[in-house]
Amino acid sequence: MLSLTVLVLSFQTLATPSYPEGADIPRNLTIEESKFIKRNPITAPRGITSPPVGPIHCVAEYEPMDGILLAWEGYASIVSEMAARITTVGNADAIVVIDQPNEESQALSQIASYGGDISRVKFIYRTIDTIWIRDYGPRYVYEGECRAIVDHTYNRPRPNDNALNSFVAEELGHKLYELPLVHGGGNFHLNENDFGWATELIEDENNGMSSAEIRGYWQDYQNLNVTITDAFPTSVDSTQHIDMWMCWASDTTCVISDWPYNSGSTQDQICDAVASSLQSQGYTVVRLPARSVSWTHYTYTNSVICNDLVLVPSYSNSSVSQHNAEALAAWQEACPDKTIVSIPCQSIVTSAGVMHCICMHVPRHLGGTSPTSYLQSPNGGVVYEPGQNVPITWISDDDVAVASVNVEFSPDGGSTWQMVVYGTADDGFHLWQVPDVNTNSGLLRVVAFDADGNSGSDAGDTFFSINGTSVAGDANGDGVVNVADILAVVDAWGICGFTCPADLNGDGSVNVVDLLAVIAAW
Length: 522
What we know:
Layout: H1 2-14, H2 31-39, E1 56-58, E2 65-71, H3 76-87, E3 93-98, H4 103-113, E4 121-125, H5 133-136, E5 139-143, E6 146-154, H6 159-162, H7 164-172, E7 175-183, E8 189-191, E9 195-199, H8 201-204, H9 211-222, E10 225-229, E11 246-248, E12 253-258, H10 266-280, E13 284-289, E14 291-293, E15 296-298, E16 304-306, E17 309-314, H11 324-334, E18 339-344, H12 346-349, E19 359-363, E20 372-377, E21 383-384, E22 389-397, E23 404-410, E24 418-424, E25 429-433, E26 438-449, E27 455-459, E28 464-467, H13 483-491, E29 494-495, E30 509-510, H14 512-520
Parallel strand pairs: 2-3, 3-4, 6-7, 9-10, 12-13, 17-18, 21-28
Antiparallel strand pairs: 1-5, 2-19, 5-6, 8-9, 11-12, 14-15, 16-17, 20-22, 22-25, 23-24, 23-26, 26-27, 26-28, 29-30
Helix pairs in contact: 3-4, 13-14
């Protein structure tokens, strides 16, 4: 009997934490989670994906947004009011992650009750564990003109949350890069000038990795120069996340907490030091009151910017409510051209986070209603041999979805284009057999199409060479380009299929485009 008891207790100690549907799981580690990760430390896989090939821009939250991602996992009134303001004043979609069949109607009903535009409420169906999507959700970059997601290993043992981003990337058609760091996304803020900030929590969670290595990963994957600051004592903020006391309002203005009732405290010194540093760099810093009351960190910087809207928390706690109006005025100073809206957040702040912690920003598609594409490779500067197999890779983006892709080759620097593959799936890969062409000005491009026929393309940045025997523009195959080639084009004029030598761009027809190719290569 004793051995059975020991066996049961051993099984219990190894069991993973549970996350009942709709339970108000706090942002910080629960006691159950803390015990679990002591036995099973969270580690990030190393080198699972290579960094983006660029050019990369990590998107600041005050830049134009298409939507805000939310999770339907508790605190429904706050999520609903946020979604209502986002879909109206914020002029963006509310993209809500749900994992139960009845949650869609619940969400639509509650968002509508707050005056939301339910035509702008979108749903992603995926099982998740908690509401704190800022910490595990997708961090966006632009690679070229395409949105891409940079993911990290969530610093909580919450498996469904940690798995969300690979699903979102596939659902929205966005490239996914896996950043080899253990991280909580709320411990991060950045501005549009490619600078970021995080607390030293990031070093504690990635044992054995130096500060330089951590910052190097952020530089490689997100093109950010990141400053690592001191972290608040856990007695003040159990998450130690920077979004609880800092927020960038614009390229030039940062909002940082002040501690009028804790002057000289550790948290006050940290905030003052960062504020002073930014001011010395020429930034404007607006200070907002913060309080630590009964182990709860009351913050007004943990706010949400969405286009011309700023959502600011308010509190009913009698020691803190006096600061509500002051915080609104400070945010209006920081964002004079935006609409500042107060959202009651007393019910959630005791769980170690507020509104910024329960949303993630989805930046605007740069192509409008037309697709965008980015040719990753080959991007020029190399020499190929005829018959060589060359991988062509690309990413794409659209406001709805990319339906298909054409891949095209130009032997003459983009003057004419020949079809490599027509209407292929948008899977980002094609193995190209190099043609027998002699050129020093070869280019490839990808052209992405949506279901409505809108298109967007991207070509290589520099030329590549092919050591072929055929000469670009040589319509009769004699090795030179002259009047005989013009006559060959004229003689073959019209539809001829893909085997006609005078069809220089390979489109199945000999026409003025082929004539221009001869002239360009003369």
